[in-house]
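Lab manual, section 2.4: Encoding a predicted structure.

Procedure: take the sequence of the chain (236 residues), apply the prediction step described in section 2.3, and record the output as structure tokens. A sample record is shown.
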Amino acid sequence: MKQQDISIPFCDKCAFETGSLFKYLTREEIDLLNFEKEFRQYKRGEILYNEGSRISGFYCIHSGIIKVFKTGLDGKEQIIRFAKPGDIIAYRSVLSNEVACTSAKVIEDCRVCFIPSEILISFVKSNSSYAHELLKLACHELGEANSFITDIAQKTVRERLAEILLLLVADFGLDDQNYLQISLTREELANIVGTATESVIRLLSEFKSDKLVELNGRKIRILNKKGLEKISNVFN
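Recorded output:
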């Protein structure tokens, strides 16, 4: 990939702008991170790593969006999360010294920093504040996974789709016309809801008829957030 005329971000500035965990590092650790990291760029559709592979480091997202997913026996994707600027991915495989339990694919052109495994391990050993925040992050992600499992078991597809739309609003926000600031295919929406693409297409059409959303290709405009909250049973 061509990287001329690219300004490589400094970790201390980037950490405070995105709220990443690296803001808990010392000056010396930040200097080491800036020296050891590898800056990379990826285009939509490119794979960062595959499930089952042995990876030698983890990734911090500077810009763009990456989907993290698992692949079922039938080849169907189950999207676990979307990583955005400030997020780190693949760190749990590094900490556990296991093969990657997920795959990561770019859905919006991104710039990332690849950080060698030994750097993360050294920070965990030497910086208790950083280690504590990393533990909190892992627990938060585990809690989200538990909630997703409960939703799959107890909520209807209609409720789950409404909830996913609200989560996307919370994570990525809306532009000045109330469009979601993340563009997903119907298949990608289905893969995070955990249902067939046809079901998502039908339900989005129903949401449009009920004036909850407006559809413009991949772009989704939120018209009635309260209505989606009522359907999702998020606050019940």
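Check your result against the sample. The first helix runs from residue 11 to 18.
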